[in-house]
Amino acid sequence: MHASVPMTPSTTVPDELIRQADRVAISSSGGKDSQAMASHIVSRAAALEMLDKIVVVHADLGRVEWEGTRELAADQARLLGVRRFEVVQANGADLLDRVGIRYGKLKTKAEREAVERGENPAKAKVAPAWPSSSARWCTPDAKRGPIWALYTRLTAELAHLGRPVRILECIGQRAAESTQRAKLAEVEINRSASNGRRHITTWRPIHGWSDARVWREIADSALPYHPAYDWGNRRLSCVFCVLGCVSDLVNGARHMPELAAAYAEQEIAVEADFKHGLSMAEIIRRAAELDAEHGPAARPPAGTALAGYVGKSAAALYRGRLALLRQQYGQAA
Length: 333
Fold this sequence. Notes:
Elements: H1 14-20, E1 23-27, H2 32-47, E2 54-59, H3 69-80, E3 85-88, H4 95-116, H5 138-157, E4 165-170, H6 179-182, E5 187-189, E6 198-203, H7 211-221, H8 246-255, H9 257-270, H10 280-294, H11 304-310, H12 312-329
Helix pairs in contact: 2-3, 2-7, 4-9, 8-9, 8-10, 9-10, 11-12
């Protein structure tokens, strides 16, 4: 690690973090947490008259994420008044295809090692190719790497400063999401992404927020959120995240059956369940049962999920303010 990279942040005060940064990079998945975070940060930056520092970046995951996510993230940035919105994407195969590629490599490795041990390679046990909580290779491949490539571009743009560029990366991770995320620091130096040309400080502005606090921010901002929440989902991004709850996965299979079928086919190809102890075939079966019992998956009106946290009256006000905001920016509903 370059000697110029600090061990600890010089400050943890939000406004000072923004003031000291050359660029404030807000990671936006299009989900509720990142949009609430973006709303919160942009309002602070506007008060400091530093909106020109803001860059909203969306890591496009392609077919494996909910339809319209990329467009929604761009929409949210525009409605916030952010001038720079960047889309980054991993080169080559998408996440689902990478599972197949990873399986091929793991299988070859297992068979080679079996031969070296004098065993039958046809009986070699192949390590799981799917991502998991202990092997989240999807995050660095599909998100972290492409976002760091953007940091390289931002650094080159500011080379005239004649010193390491200070980038404040903002991530919408919350302690309430998991015990692992609860252990994360609200502010820390990202030493892996830093070097002699750039210093990256990671800031988790909504780390201590509850679900209710997130939805209140959305209601106050009047930003559009993804309809998947109104359809019953608890989280967004990948439709079939291995860390997602069963109800989200089943909901995804009901709304995007073709993608679910593609996952089921990949399960057969890589000889392993998509999620440990729960196959995509089982998820599809449960989705079919619900469709048979209740009919096609419902699509409640916008504001349904929000109303559960802020009340029906506040949700109605939100819809009205959203319509006015869209009219102001000349955007269709």
